[in-house]
């Protein structure tokens, strides 16, 4: 197809998608609003399509890539698929609603770890995940001077599966109570992915789930309160 055909097919077929929204974090209905294209010197074309998320109303830019047939003298494009999304989705594990329940000092380090991860800064990402994890552990009552595995083991409220998992994570074994024991020079991409996966689930068990249970109990209690009590202070 030529560029005009590509444009026409996008206008006709790319109207509504179900995709993960980088703003609200949910798989949502997103609606195409507008598009424009950039043609590369080698003949490839990239369409920039603006969508609006139906639930949260925020805008998302996605690019759709078309490749030029290298053996053809004329414009001869084949659709290769979606390429980039802006803003980037940094956290595929936790949504914004869930993060509201995480203490600020833990969350700030966690989000910095995610930004480092998104640009491939693996050592910096692991260092920030470690910092976030250790401050979360201390907030939950672990002793500040112990190594990471002992800190996790000391939290009896954690499910046994999470404690067992922490024993399997390679770099956790090297993480003492001091940053100079961090062994970061041996970090690779798999370590970052695993630490992120572990820590996001750890946050669910330690901060997010208890807060949700509390909120649900409060809602239930509010519903069962006699009506003439509804004006009184909680
Ligand atoms: Zn949204």
Topology:
Layout lengths: L2 H11 L2 E5 L6 E13 L5 E9 L5 E10 L8 E10 L9 H4 L4 H15 L3 H18 L8 H6 L6 H9 L20 H36 L10
Antiparallel strand pairs: 1-2, 2-3, 3-4, 4-5
The structure holds zinc ion (ZN).
The site of zinc ion has 8 residues, from loops.
Describe this structure in words.
- Helices cover 42% and strands 20% of the residues.
- The protein has 234 residues and is of the alpha+beta class.
- The chain has two domains: 3-86, no CATH class; 96-218, Four Helix Bundle (Hemerythrin (Met), subunit A) (Up-down Bundle).
- The protein has a five-stranded antiparallel β-sheet, covered by helices on one side.
- The longest helix has 36 residues, at 189-224.
- It is flat and about 70 Å long.
Give keywords.
alpha+beta; five-stranded antiparallel beta sheet; 5 strands; binds zinc ion
SSE-based structural type: alpha+beta
Here the CATH topology of the largest domain equals Four Helix Bundle (Hemerythrin (Met), subunit A)
Q: Radius of gyration over alpha carbons?
A: 24 Å
The chain-level mean pLDDT equals 90
Query: Care to count the β-strands?
Result: 5
| Domain module tally | 2
CATH class of the largest domain: Mainly Alpha
Order of helices and strands: HEEEEEHHHHHH
Overall geometry: flat
Instruction: Please report which band the strand proportion falls in: under 5%, 5-15%, 15-25%, 25-35%, 35-45% or over 45%.
Output: 15-25%
Question: Share of helix among residues?
Answer: 40-55%
Low-confidence stretches: none
Largest sheet: 5 strands, antiparallel
Biggest sheet, spatial arrangement of strands: 1-2-3-4-5
Shape-level CATH architecture of the largest domain: Up-down Bundle
What ions, cofactors and ligands are bound?
zinc ion
In whole angstroms, the N-to-C terminal distance is: 66 Å
Chain oligomer state: single chain
Number of helices: 7
């Amino acid at each position: 197809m030529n560029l005009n055909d590509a444009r026409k097919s996008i206008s006709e077929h790319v109207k509504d998608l179900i995709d993960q929204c980088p703003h609200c974090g949910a798989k949502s209905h997103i609606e195409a609003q507008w598009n424009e294209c950039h043609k590369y010197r080698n003949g490839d074309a990239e369409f920039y399509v603006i969508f609006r998320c139906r639930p949260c109303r925020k805008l998302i830019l996605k690019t759709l890539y078309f490749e030029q047939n290298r053996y053809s003298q004329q414009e001869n494009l084949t659709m290769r698929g979606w390429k980039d999304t802006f803003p980037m989705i940094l956290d595929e594990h936790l949504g914004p609603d869930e993060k509201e329940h995480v203490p600020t000092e833990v969350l700030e380090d966690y989000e910095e770890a995610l930004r480092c991860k998104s640009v491939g800064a693996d050592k910096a990402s692991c260092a920030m995940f470690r910092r976030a994890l250790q401050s979360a552990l201390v907030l939950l009552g672990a002793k500040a001077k112990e190594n990471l595995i002992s800190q996790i083991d000391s939290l009896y409220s954690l499910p046994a599966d999470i404690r067992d998992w922490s024993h399997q994570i390679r770099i956790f074994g090297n993480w003492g109570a001091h940053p100079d024991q961090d062994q970061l020079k041996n970090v690779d991409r798999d370590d970052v992915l695993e630490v992120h996966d572990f820590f996001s689930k750890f946050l669910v068990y330690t901060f997010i789930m208890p807060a949700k249970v509390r909120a649900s109990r409060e809602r239930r209690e509010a519903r069962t309160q006699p009506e003439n009590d509804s004006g009184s202070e909680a």
